[in-house]
Design brief:
Blueprint: E1 7-9, E2 21-23, H1 36-55, H2 57-62, E3 72-77, E4 85-90, H3 94-110, H4 112-117, E5 119-120, E6 123-124, H5 127-141, H6 145-154, H7 163-176, H8 179-188, H9 203-227
Antiparallel strand pairs: 1-2, 3-4, 5-6
Helix pairs in contact: 3-5, 3-6, 5-6, 5-7, 7-8, 8-9
């Protein structure tokens, strides 16, 4: 009679790790050697995986987290006056979202009651609204996230103004001077975004007023601190 022996058979690729089958009595059954095409295909698969990791992997790792890819920030605009219309702005990166969080913190300190109730007079000011307006302002003025942050550090009032109205005012400011001059006025006096399109013919006065406000701001902060 034939002798008894155990023969370990390699599991197929789809098998779970460690799922080895034991073949019992009888002749040893050896799997047929893989064909040349199968070997070539396996080698190509390994090579492609290596190329993907080498060239694509680092780019993906340096990009925004998967949760932020294609994410959007929703916020309300005045529209017909009911504040029911919504608009969205893309979240550009994790770094940008961190700056948006800082913007919200600045707003909370400047308008604590409004931040708690979510309303300023008749304007919605929930976190999403404030972050949306900050992003819209950045796009409207074509400035960086850091520059937009500096604007609200000076005065966060643009965050309680309808984004469409801010854009209307900004466009008028640029028409009445230039982009650089308009940005200089905003940096000195962010409250100018509430002026409306009449500012187009008053940019000379706006520049003077902005310079004066910037000059006296440190003194105003000292006085406000004493009155608290």
């Amino acid at each position: 009679g034939s002798s008894t022996f155990l023969n370990f058979v390699c599991p197929p690729p789809s098998a779970s790790p460690g799922s080895l089958a034991l073949e019992g009595y009888g002749e040893a059954k050896r799997p047929a050697p893989p064909g040349a095409l199968t070997v070539v295909a396996a080698l190509l698969r390994v090579a492609c995986q290596g190329l993907v990791e080498a060239f694509v992997g680092p780019a993906l790792r340096s990009a925004a987290p998967r949760t932020l890819l294609r994410a959007e920030c929703m916020g309300r605009v005045r529209g017909d006056g009911s504040w029911t219309a919504e608009d969205s702005m893309p979240i550009e990166s994790e770094e940008e979202e961190n700056i948006a969080d800082e913007v919200w913190t600045i707003f909370e300190k400047a308008y604590p009651n409004a931040a708690k109730t979510g309303i300023f007079i008749d304007t919605p000011v929930e976190s999403r609204d404030v972050k949306y307006r900050w992003r819209r302002m950045k796009k409207t003025m074509d400035i960086t996230s850091q520059e937009a942050l500096e604007v609200v550090k000076v005065d966060p009032i643009p965050l309680v103004v309808d984004s469409d109205y801010v854009q209307l005012t900004w466009d008028a400011m640029v028409r009445g001077s230039s982009k650089d001059e308009a940005l200089g006025v905003v940096m000195n006096n962010p409250g100018v975004v509430t002026a409306g399109d009449d500012i187009e013919k008053q940019m000379a006065q706006a520049k003077v007023a902005g310079g004066f406000i910037a000059f006296t701001r440190p003194l105003n902060k000292v006085i406000q601190g004493l009155l608290r």
